[in-house]
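Justification of resources, computational component.

The compute hours requested in this renewal are based largely on the per-chain cost of generating structure records like the one below. Each record pairs the submitted sequence with a full structure-token output. That output is archived, and it is also reused by downstream analysis tasks.
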Amino acid sequence: MAQWQELLKLDSALQNRVRQLYDGRFPTEIRNQLSHWIESQDWSSAAVNENAAAACFCALLQHLEEQWHRSVQENSILQGPDFPRMRAYIVENFQAQPLNLAAILSECLKEEKQILESVTMTMGGSPVVMAPQWTELDNRVMQLKLQLLELKKEVKVLEDLSEKLDFIRNSWQSKVEQKVELVQSKALVEQECLKMARSISQTKQVVLQRLVSVLNEAAGSVQTLTGVELPQWRRRQQRSCIGSPEDAGLDLLEKWFTAVAEVLLGVGEQLQQLQVQNQRFPTPDFPGLTDSMAEMEKFSRRLTRNLLTSALVVEKQPVMQNLPQRPLILKTGVRFKVTVRFLVNLPAFKTLIKVKPVFDKDVEEVKTISGFRQFDFSRDDAKVLDVDLSSGALTAAFEHLSLKEKKSRVKGSCESQLTVTEELHIIRFVTQLQHNGETFHIQASSLPLVVVSSSNQVPSAWAAIMWSNMASGADSENLSLFLDPPGLTWQQLAPLLSWQFLSVGQRPLDQDQLSMLQAKIMGDPGDPGDPDGLIHWNKFSKDESVWIWIDGILDLIKKFVWELWRDGCIMGFVSKERTRSLLREKPVGTFLIRFSESILDGAITFSWVEQSAGGKRIHAVEPYTKKELSVLSLPNAIYNYTLATSGRSHNPLVYLYPDTPKDAAFARYRAAEPSPPSKNTKHYIPWEIAPFSM
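The structure output for this chain reads:
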């Protein structure tokens, strides 16, 4: 569908932004009427090539002429658009400067596209407007680009006026010298030149005011991007690395970084042009003009440096292929990948920036923590930032990195103050950018990571990664955090735990499940605990192995019951006492599925209500471990479960709590039963695995 047609579907606020693009520059009536034709032309190429611009100008006039003749033939002159008036407007405003026409349409088409891209599409295809603060920033950046366009036009007008005045003065003087009768008109010419000089002074004043305005607006945008939006993105990425579902995309940030950089570089170009003009056509009315422009250029360069040195980010944090849901855990000798991205995505920077990763660069902990391990990359690896074919982003993907430990510790050296999984490290990505005679030293850093030597250390390492990211800000590089680890509140820990279940089973923890975990981790409300209500690192990860138990359950869900967890069939975290309370009032045969509280490696069981001589009783089957679930799926175990009592056998499981019939809850999950051995079976009765209790 044509771009203009997509714009017509937007709400009035966004359509007003489009209208502002064209206001005073090009009629939206022509843009609307010739939308398909305008979008079919290569205005970007025409904007930098006079011959191409002239060809597009002539083609536009011809197209308008054809549309007019078509209206005449169809007898729709009164009903249709006024094509002759449109043609007259184009001739009057752009015949002398077809490059200006191409530049306007090229810029407007690009801005239209960016407005469309700023509208995120939901799965159903309905447009959703950006968050209010992002919409405001987007408008500011767009207005900044429009101000730059106006500045370019004013500088061009100033240049034309100065050249015209210089020409008149020089040519008239030579004519006066040749013809005496022209002396009488000299006074009139000088008077006209004086008026033109005043106009130049006024235009120069407007240009200077515009420059100050653009630079002040750019300074505000740079501060917002580097001081607010970028840290907020880092925090979103930090949380997404530990399971949060929030969006950590960079497209909007890249759009704004690139646009502001274009403006600052454009301001630099205009300042250079003004300096050249001032040398050719000095203005006595502005004795301090040179100094003012030098100060503005200095300010512009400082803003550009601030923006460019903040533009390199780690888009995808270090991650091993076998642990895609647990980034920031690396194992010596095992390949991992990481991607960096440069947010100022300009063609001038393509293949110009070479990025090199350096492990633990400038890390003080190497000197201050005894026994701190040191690592290096197995091989030198540097990448040049280039355009990613799928996203168009300026990135460098390091896909074959691996670590080796430096054998710097000698026998008898003091033991490390930290365990292997509490020792945090970092990767720096360093580069230099040379542009416009300046050198920019640019650096980006990964989030703190853990290096393990055994797969058995992964659960503890992940606990450390989660803890450090919840306890520290995104810009914190406190690699010695676990020398004195801060506590977390339950309000911090609860969402963190919930994200883990969302990651592996596509379903977060509900409030009842979180309450059970809170009691298990912090104790009952009446129990003595930390007076500040904090959960301490040792209690969570070491002393009582709470995390190891939770991690075992996560592994069980991931490998065997993730669909059941996703669909809410598993209540999971419910104590024995709570189980009795829930089932006691339910019909006989009602059952619920919960995780074992005693098996650290993860196990699952089901409890049901049974009628006995003394009334209702609550029973629970011995928990199924991962070993048993590897040969018998939980749905099959539920269907085939047999209880033998008083000489009879039956399946006591009828309703999944609270009242869902077993077939409705589990039929779609049942797997084919394991096949009996195939050799020499004709004389034997086939067997099958069946859970059985007596």
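Residues 186-241 form the longest helix (56 residues). The longest strand covers residues 603-612.
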